[in-house]
Amino acid sequence: MLITLSGIDGAGKTTQLELLQNYFADMQHNTVFLWTRGGYTPGINWLKNFSRRLAGNKLPASGHSTKREQILGKGWVQKVWLTVAIIDLMWIYGIQIRLWLNQGKIVICDRYLWDTLIDFQIMFPDNSTEKWNLWRIVVWLTPKPSVQFLLMIPLELSEKRCRQKYEPFPDTPERRSQRYALYQDAANRYQWKVIDSTRPVEAVFASIRKFI
Known about the structure:
Rossmann fold, alpha/beta, five-stranded parallel beta sheet, globular, 56% helix
């Protein structure tokens, strides 16, 4: 079984994922938890750190900065960054997840393919990544989830919850608003089970459990 949870920051994904893990552990199922974000996976992060060591101070550190935005503003840099990130996802989604599923494991994903597409649309709006042949290949390779959930909360509640918890690289208010709009649009196009996550934690989990 492949289960995915999507949603904006503060929607409660981490809490529900922990409840899911405990739920399957109580039934003695073999589960695997996976968090993915295109361009920020362990392999890509290693490559970035290695490049920074080679380049010295020429490359910016992780996180939002003027220097980072200037470098990523270059068209050729964007294309290289996106190409490497998509190829990396081919391995994670097309091979690694399939191997786990073939081993009879339950795979629970915090974020999945469409969350990454939304990230790309926000970071590089002029690239139309979804039209790339390389992106179409990764979509074709990626296993279809048994069930995929979209946890939705109002934008104002997302902002409030994000202020109350630590986010290493939080969205700007403008990006958070844009991300919220993209999730609202995607909810009508992808086969997500949309869950009202403004309710108590137990009620949200009961709704999720009903579908699995």
